[in-house]
Amino acid sequence: MISDGRTLDTPLTIEADPPGPATTGRLGELWLAGLAYTILVILFGAVVRITGSGAGCGQHWPTCQGEVVHLPQSVETVIELTHRITSGLSMLVVFVLAFVSFKRVAAPHPLRRAAMAAVVLMVVEALIGAALVLLRLVGDNDSFARAVIMGLHLVNTLALTGVMAWAALLGGRPTARVDWKSAALKPLLVGTVGIGVVAAAGAVTALGDTLYPATAGVTETVSQVGSAGAHFLERLRGAHPLLAIAVSGLLLWLGPDLAARSLSTREGGAGGAARWSRALTITVYGQLALGLLNVWLSAPGWMQVVHLCAALVLWLCWVGLGFAVLQRSG
Questions:
Q1: What is the pTM of this model?
Q2: Where are the domains of the chain?
Q3: 286 to each of 97, 121, 130, 315, how far by Cα in Å?
Q4: Is residue 61 within 8 Å of 86, Cβ to Cβ?
Q5: How far apart are CA 282 and CA 294, in angstroms?
């Protein structure tokens, strides 16, 4: 007989402690690291487009030039193959993070749903990349189909990074609760749709800047809008700046308004709403300045990468604001 009443043949069971703040905090840090790596892969994807290296592996996917292990013979192949490898590692990172999240966090913690959404969106991201290669919508292809898929590609990229950022924020809160019935949800959705539309238009514009480089900055952009002889990618070049200005105004109004009426701002814990709003405002003005500089410089490749990076930062500030506003105590 053992002192606590068990006999020697009583099975010994050890119950694991429920995930605590330290556990979820580490998950948040891991998701943040995964997000940072994924953003680097996304930016490198822009380099693939800018350098015309999308066809570097031929019309083969997931193999390169029909080979599982291929020795690159050109710079374009090196760039495309490197992007495929880093993208594959990004997918592996998301899969591992989702698995660990499900093991460490019990239902109904919202991190589990965010992790599953990240897995689905990462798979969609890979399938879009495969479609671009298999349908030959790479290199010098200037078709309408490529423009549409490029727009959808960037919208899915925003969704993926947004969900990963959401997972990182949730991972730092062991008792996170999200109020999906909040009155703030509608304006958040409006802003999200606006950002998505601008992003899709930006992807099409970037494609046009790559295939039909402008040489006269603003003057050429304006002159091509109504030109019957210009390619549709050139005629659409002016749409993105106009949409960006309109949506920027919307975000500059919505951000402070959401922060002002946010419970998290008043309580200071989620304290975050006011800080995210300020960060959003700064980023919007910065992105407008970068956009103007991009047009003035006739969209050089390096500037397109910087512009895309700033767009992702702006988007993540909006996601952070949404998270802070929708947080519910308890």
A1: 0.86
A2: 23-176, 178-330
A3: 32, 29, 34, 13
A4: no
A5: 18
